[in-house]
Design brief:
The chain is built from 5 helices and no strands. By secondary structure, the chain is mainly α. Helix 2 packs across helix 5 and helix 3 crosses helix 4. It starts with a helix and ends with a helix.
């Protein structure tokens, strides 16, 4: 009974697959990099525009802007008004799209990992069979009289 429940649970929520993702160094590097870039961008915008942008009242507003920009949501309620802020916005938009694509690829890899492992084993088995057949053909060729 317990193992049947566990199998159903594992089919619904692929915990092992997500744990595989959490053990990847690239996942953590990307996560820390993205969050660091967002906080850094918020800080730069805050100090560049705190005196010139009436919509920017606090660091919280700048952080909100950075998250909205990096995720390419960009509500438009807070926008950059200085040259530095506009260049920062453009960079954050492009990098946000790149990071989204990388996260999507990492999650897809985590979800497909068991299936990819099976396919990889099948390919290795087929390669081994081809190699064995090649050896047999070579030995038959050596034995045949010319």
């Amino acid at each position: 009974m317990r193992s049947r429940i566990r199998r159903k649970f594992n089919r619904i929520i692929p915990i092992q697959r997500l744990l595989w993702l959490l053990r990847r160094k690239l996942f953590w590097q990307l996560t820390i990099g993205v969050h660091g870039l967002i906080v850094l961008s918020a800080g730069i915008l805050y100090f560049a525009e705190i005196d010139t942008n009436p919509k920017l009242q606090s660091f919280h507003d700048a952080l909100y802007w950075a998250v909205a920009t990096a995720t390419t949501v960009g509500y438009g309620d807070i926008t950059a008004s200085t040259v530095i802020g506009k260049w920062l916005s453009m960079a954050l938009m492009v990098l946000g799209t790149l990071f989204s694509a990388l996260y999507t690829a990492l999650f897809a890899a985590a979800l497909m990992k068991p299936e990819l492992d099976i396919i990889e084993r099948e390919i290795l088995d087929e390669d081994q069979k081809v190699e064995n057949l090649s050896r047999k053909v070579e030995t038959l060729g050596e034995r045949s009289p010319d």
